[in-house]
Amino acid sequence: MILTITTTYRPATDLGFLLHKHPDKVQTFPLPFGHAHVFFPEADEDRCTAALLLDIDSLDIVRSKAQGRKMAGHYVNDRPYTISSFMAVAIAKVFGTALSGHCRAREALPDQAIPLQAHLSVLPSDEGEPLIRRIFEPLGYEVEVQKTLLDPAFAEWGEAPYYAVTLRAVISLHRLLNHLYVLIPVLDNDKHYYIADDEVAKLLQHGKGWLNSHPERETISWRYLKHNSRLTQTALSRMAYGSQAGSSPEEGPSHRPVPLREQRIQTVLDVLKASEVSRILDLGCGEGELLRHLIQEPVFNELVGVDVSLATLAKAKDRLHLDTLPERQSRRVKLWHGSLIYRDRRLEGFDAATVTEVIEHIEPALLPAFDRALFEFARPRVVIVTTPNREYNRLFESLGPDTLRHADHRFEWTRQQFTDWAEQAAAQFGYQVRIQGIGPEDPVLGSPTQMGVFQRK
């Protein structure tokens, strides 16, 4: 994968001084996962472009996993061809001096805003173009996004979450590099290495001066820290209350800003615990986000994730580390391939089923089949369904009352529409249902997420 940075500042060749790289040379740097090459496709007084090209060894990164260092799960993977956390590591390694804002040869230049353009050739974004724009546009970038394929020969397989992204702004180089260092792994929503407490310090260091005021700071922190709720809480608390001497999060108010996803997961966990269930289905489990939290609760004896996508189940298996869990733990968790609109006898007899942020991905015409498969045939004692509240969308800067939150959503219900569906399903199949909101509540528009808890009569 390749990242290019271009400037038309005069003299444009000062970009070489800022990056501490000579425009007339091709330089190669060894990295734990391959090599980084720096070269300048163009360099004159009017325009200069620096390119950072990564050559990733797929075999080496899988061997590294076998040696206890997580990089990638399979020999065939997209890491050599996409801009991911490998690129963030390369930026820190190869452009470290520029990242920190130092330049001995041009001492005043690092803090100077100059016209810059960054082009990321193949950037993954699991939530598509809307997330890319929500992440970069508040930072003042003109953003150009184009859907791309790793290989056009596989176009018939359907759309893949890869985008060619160009960012333009008048900005200092070290600010641009810090944005890329943080936000590339955020968009990819993964990191090739295990994270620890020092990742919070990295986030706050490279997010200094911009992250605290970013409207998506909770999403950025949550994804940068690999969905680790403890580290995310720590980062958000430090941003909210400062980390200087004499001030600590514990001295501030008891409320902490928590990402909506984390609030949703915690609410579902609380309902499951209160319901005293032990065998749980996670229907439409995706990449295992909820399962990862359920595994940590010893009161749940059997956990089964079901999804229609084999590729997604493979990612869930990798992210849940099922191959390396102790045998006693791994016996508790199963991943099954299946559809939510057909009767599946394997799903019968469970205590509870969760359907979190899934129903809105089903075609409306197929909802009656979904209702029967879940409430009539699987028929768990407790069913938890969460879905977006469409009314709340107008409070998101990047959305509006007629815009859906995700490109794959087939619909989004208002509170009344969700209530009508839930009460009709409960009456038809012998359940009682209560409905509540999740997330900050607006007095007029309600909460961003709505949840129905069905209890079998």
Automatic annotation (TrEMBL):
<feature type="domain" description="Hen1 N-terminal">
    <location>
        <begin position="1"/>
        <end position="239"/>
    </location>
</feature>
<keyword id="KW-0808">Transferase</keyword>
<comment type="similarity">
    <text>Belongs to the methyltransferase superfamily. HEN1 family.</text>
</comment>
<keyword id="KW-0479">Metal-binding</keyword>
<keyword id="KW-0694">RNA-binding</keyword>
<dbReference type="GO" id="GO:0046872">
    <property type="term" value="F:metal ion binding"/>
</dbReference>
<keyword id="KW-0489">Methyltransferase</keyword>
<dbReference type="Pfam" id="PF12623">
    <property type="entry name" value="Hen1_L"/>
</dbReference>
<dbReference type="InterPro" id="IPR024740">
    <property type="entry name" value="Hen1_N"/>
</dbReference>
<protein>
    <recommendedName>
        <fullName>Small RNA 2'-O-methyltransferase</fullName>
        <ecNumber>2.1.1.386</ecNumber>
    </recommendedName>
</protein>
<dbReference type="GO" id="GO:0003723">
    <property type="term" value="F:RNA binding"/>
</dbReference>
<dbReference type="InterPro" id="IPR024026">
    <property type="entry name" value="3'-RNA_MeTfrase_Hen1_bac"/>
</dbReference>
<keyword id="KW-0460">Magnesium</keyword>
<dbReference type="InterPro" id="IPR026610">
    <property type="entry name" value="Hen1"/>
</dbReference>
<dbReference type="Pfam" id="PF13489">
    <property type="entry name" value="Methyltransf_23"/>
</dbReference>
<dbReference type="GO" id="GO:0001510">
    <property type="term" value="P:RNA methylation"/>
</dbReference>
<keyword id="KW-0949">S-adenosyl-L-methionine</keyword>
<keyword id="KW-0943">RNA-mediated gene silencing</keyword>
<dbReference type="GO" id="GO:0031047">
    <property type="term" value="P:regulatory ncRNA-mediated gene silencing"/>
</dbReference>
<dbReference type="GO" id="GO:0090486">
    <property type="term" value="F:small RNA 2'-O-methyltransferase activity"/>
</dbReference>
<dbReference type="InterPro" id="IPR038546">
    <property type="entry name" value="Hen1_N_sf"/>
</dbReference>
<dbReference type="InterPro" id="IPR029063">
    <property type="entry name" value="SAM-dependent_MTases_sf"/>
</dbReference>
